[in-house]
Amino acid sequence: MGSSNDSPIVQMNQDIFGDEYIEYLEKEQMYDLLEHKELSVTVISLYIRFLYEKVVCTRKLSNKYSFLSPHKMSMFKLDPDNVKHYIVDMFLRNKESDKLFLAPYNSGAHWVLFAINAVSEVIYYLDPVHGDYTNHPGIKNMLDT
User: Fold this and answer.
1) Which of 18, 28, 73, 85 has the most other CB atoms within 10 Å of its CB?
2) Which residues in 1-145 belong to E strands, given as ranges?
């Protein structure tokens, strides 16, 4: 982890979301986290990196769990075809394993989680405020394909 202009720079490994890239954590995002405000996609991504390193890798669970990028999932409303191609590509890369894909999605100032088993064709919708997945018909239809 490096630093640039007081913003930590974090290398994101290709194994986490399928692409290698650099994540910049801004000071405002850290304050938002500490003040229990809305979490940014960067904060969610860095938390997933932490989970990947401390839980998935440490316990050798990479054959059971994968993550879909919250950055890419959040682009659904702007570019659904690109998001769909990304999801299909991630499923195809892992077609030999019966994995559970965890896909965080910001439905508009609120994060939900889709847990997808592509092999058994089951999608779980997890919402901490008990929302209804039918409130997101577009993404539901895309995940059903």
Assistant:
1) 73
2) 2-4, 7-12, 21-24, 65-67, 100-106, 111-117, 122-126
Q: Using only the alpha carbons of the chain, give its radius of gyration.
A: 15
Q: Based on the number of CB atoms within 10 Å of its own CB, is 86 exposed (0-12), middle (13-18) or buried (19 or more)? A: buried
Question: pTM, whole model, 2 decimals?
Answer: 0.86
**C-alpha–C-alpha distance, residues 71 and 69, integer Å:** 5
Residue among 17, 2, 10, 132 at smallest CA distance from 72: 17
Q: Residue 14: which residues within 8 A CB-CB, separation 6 or more? A: 20
Spell out the residues 6+ positions from residue 24 whose beta carbon is closer than 8 angstroms to its own. 4, 7, 8, 9, 10, 42
Pairing between β-strand 7-12 and β-strand 2-4 as defined by DSSP bridges = antiparallel
Mean pLDDT for 8-17 is 93
